[in-house]
Amino acid sequence: MTDVWKPSVTVAAIIEREGRFLLVEEETSEGIRFNQPAGHLDPGESLEQAVVRETLEETAHDFTPTALVGMYMSRYVSQRTGHDITYLSFTFCGEPGRQHDRPLDTGILRAVWMNYDELVACSDRHRSPSVLQRVDDYLAGKRLPLSFISTHSSVYEVANG
């Protein structure tokens, strides 16, 4: 049997408050980078659950997704290791909630609010080209209702069974 190629599924959150966007500054194999709160989809969770979890883990903020901004596919080849990964990322926008007093995820240096000009000014330190594209799409008003996403109950049964 041949191997089946599969992209790595991730989620990301666009969180805007008073013209500023919530980002994380994180350690990566390529150095310190800026990214939206983002991470991998875990077994047994929906895309919406994943983005809520990742936002809390990386920023200590509650997050309520309200819409899907877009789906982004990109390929990353590490300059250091040569590791080749294709990412399929689902990006949500929504409302920030309460900020908790809790440690941030391993590798996250800090959560930071940036305006658009500050985000553009540090584009050489973005984790991926999608970081700015996601914000641009959000600012352009791109939205799909969450009802466009469906998670079958079997997803949860596998994780719990």
UniProtKB/TrEMBL annotation:
Transmembrane segments: none annotated. The keyword Metal-binding does not apply. Pfam families: NUDIX. PROSITE patterns: NUDIX (PS51462). Signal peptide: none annotated. InterPro entries: NUDIX_hydrolase-like_dom_sf, NUDIX_hydrolase_dom, NudJ. The keyword Lipid metabolism does not apply. CDD domains: NUDIX_Hydrolase (cd03675). GO terms for molecular function: nucleoside diphosphate phosphatase activity; ribonucleoside triphosphate phosphatase activity; thiamine diphosphate phosphatase activity. Gene3D superfamilies: Nucleoside Triphosphate Pyrophosphohydrolase. Its EC number is 3.6.1.-. Its cofactor is Mg(2+). It comes from the Bacteria. Keywords: Hydrolase, Magnesium. Residues 4-137 form the Nudix hydrolase domain. Monomer. Belongs to the Nudix hydrolase family. NudJ subfamily. This is Phosphatase NudJ. It comes from Oxalicibacterium solurbis. The lineage of its organism: Bacteria, Pseudomonadati, Pseudomonadota, Betaproteobacteria, Burkholderiales.
